[in-house]
Structure formats: C-alpha cells, structure tokens
Write a structure and sequence with these properties.
328 residues; alpha+beta; two-stranded parallel ribbon; 15 helices; 58% helix; elongated
Length: 328
Amino acid sequence: MLCVLALILSTAAGVGEAPIVAFAATPAIEAFARRAVASAREPSAQAHALYAALLALKRQGAIAADRDNTPKARPPKTAAELMDLALRPEADGDRRAGCYELSALFIAAARSVSLRAVGVERDEPTGTGQIGHIMAGVRFSSGGRLTVFDLQNEALGSAAAVRELGDAELAAHHYNHLAVAAYLSQELDQAQRAIDQALTLAPDNPSFLNNRATVLLARGEPLVALAEAAYAVALAPRVPLFRYQLGRVHLLLGELEPAVALFTQALVLRDRYGLARRDLGWARLLVGDDQGARRELERALRDEPDTPDLHLYLGLVHLVAGQRDQAA
C-alpha cells in the first residue's frame, strides 16, 4: 500500500523533491512498536498496548502534546521525526505534536507490527473545516468495525461520527499542514506548492480547496480563489467557514450583494461567528445600510469580543454617521 502511495507522491512532487509519507515506519518505530506489544497476543490488546506506550511518551515529556488545533506556523513533523525526538530526551528540538502528527506515529507503529491501522477524521458537516481533527483507527478483523484512538485528547472512540481516510488523503494532510505553516510565515510560493500537492492527492477535499483559496487571495489571484472557494461550498454546503470564505472573495472583488448573502448564510449555520458577522457589518456599510452595519458589528462585539479589528470597523461606522466622539 505504501509503495503505491510513494509512487503517487513521486508523481505529485516536483523535480528533485523527495515525496513525504508522514506515516511511513522506520526501524526505530518498528523496534518501539515491538517492545510495546511484546506481551500482547491479540490484535486488540496490541493496539491498546501501543496506544498506552505512546501516551506514556507524552506523560514523560518526550512528546509535548499540542492541544490547540488552530492553524500554526510550525511545520508538521513526520512519524520518523517525532519518534527520533521522543527516543532522544537529550536532543534539542520542538517536541510539540498535534493530532495529525500523533496519529501518523500511531499508524506507522501499528502497521509495522501488522495491525490494520488507518487515519480517520470527524465527519461533522457543521464543523469549522480549517485543519480538522485527525485520529487513528484500527480494524481487528477484515471488514470489522473501526476502533478509534484519539492520541491528542487521550480518548478511545469518538463522540462524533468519523470517516476513514485513504492513504493518499491521509498523506495529503501533511502537505496541507505544510501549506498552512508556510502561509502563516508569508512564504506564499512554498504555500502554493504544498497545497497544490495536497490537492493532487485529494482533489475533492473541501478544506484543502478552502486553504488554496486563502493562498490564492494572498497571491493576488481572486478569480481563481473564487472558483476554489465555490467548489468547497458545493462539496460541503453545511460548513460555515467555506461560506464565509466565498463571501470574503466576493467582497474583495467588490461584489457586495453575494458577499452579504454568503456572510448571512454562514451565520445561519453558526450564529456566534465573529469574523462572518464583522465582515457582514462591513459589507452592509458599503451597500449603504449604516444601521444594519452598526447592528451587526455591535452584536459581534458583544458575542465575540476577541474578533480582530472589531473596534476599527465600528469606529468607521460611527465616522460615516458623523459621530466623531463615538468613533474616537
């Protein structure tokens, strides 16, 4: 399976670029896994023993769990890189690992001892859709149900429905994280290359399409971004982030009526959505609805006061109304 995936990745990668399979095993990973399952005979016992061994690394500080799934400028680690740090407590390095990195390590270790491990993610149509929450799943018999191992939250099972990821899509998540990290570091060429590779592997992933739209906007290509954002909405119409993103592209293009409609739709899906309400207020101001603009911005300030630039936007509304003292 990994051989086929490596061939796909070789095709996706540029000339001279080594393809990345973040959940590929190494001798060190296999040795760790064999020690962990040494006293367990049944697949279920082996998977749980491996899960316990990885949690022990977290609790010892060999791995520092990153509990925050918001996008970060920190590049993701492969399973090999994370294992190398975990086994060398004296080594300098960033030991933080989020859900994808922890799950990639579990999957690599589990497969190295012949467990049927796969990646899974929450199948939540109303989720935020930014990075997603990746977990590991194991089947203990052919065609059997998945047992979910959530390494980040140290939980077995998932309260939400999950869907299984194919290896290509699981590999694509590494490139998606690379793209996000590069974008946040303003390395837009690298971000573009990484998100393009993610979409080569998983062309119908709405989160990746949404992130590509973000990169394209930053590169000054709003019309291409519009197509990507619209496709993300078509694939996942219940995710408020994708509606917001599409509205943002229309707003930047000066297309105010569709922007107002899309921000409103995003807020129907998620009422407390500060960015969508802020931008809806701004769009209403631009179409001449001063009262509507103030209403939306004041509600955003009340519901989500940490939303960036809210006071600036509300101040501009007061200036338009000639209320200089309130603006100040």
